[in-house]
Amino acid sequence: MKNIIAPTWKSAFVVIAVITMAWTISSLGYYEITDTLGLTNGYNEAPILMGAYYGVWAGMVIAVFRPDVNAWIRRASPGENRLAPAVMLITFALFALKVLPQLPAVDPPDDLNVADIVFAQPWYFLPKTVEILFQQVLLSALVLEMQAQKMSLRQSVILTAVLFGGFHLTLALTDANAFYVTRYTIAATLFGAIYPYLILQRRNGFVYAFSIHWAFYAFDTTMAHFAFAAASN
């Protein structure tokens, strides 16, 4: 039994290390770019640049885990709805271009350090969508590698929940307010817990997961617009 378990967990630790490194370096790189260019909200002020930046990171992760990704694509393709990604992207675009501009203007208190997404403009969601893709690829790589190592669904659920929630705890290092950090950490933990199930056991699982992830940001910024609009009156 030990001879079977040990190599599996050794491989898992390697995958976790690669994913952690990619997440950490990409985040540090984002802040380095914004500091160098003097940007206060990189997604609003340089959406094309930031979208390309996270696109490169997503491509690198896909390249690293290409065998697992290709195997999953071959297995999932026959049951996938090819229209689902298009419907998803059109829905996202309608929110960003039509709904977001109609929300009440935000005016948060000066002494409250709010997240960048509170001030999101329509083009903000271009790099945000690519960043979500990058995060989804990281999670998918983890889940697929765990499956390749014959880990149970329960083990994958625990790992993705702990890791995805834990990664969001690093928001505290950006001087974000405690409520923001707590809210996003709890949401990320819950999302991480359902991600393996969606990817491994549901048709169009990646689209469902992506939609849930994206919808949380849309919901969060919508609530912020109403909350801070009310606070300013």
UniProtKB/TrEMBL annotation:
Keywords: Membrane, Transmembrane, Transmembrane helix. The chain crosses the membrane at residues 12-31, 46-65, 156-174, 180-200, 207-231. This is CPBP family intramembrane metalloprotease.
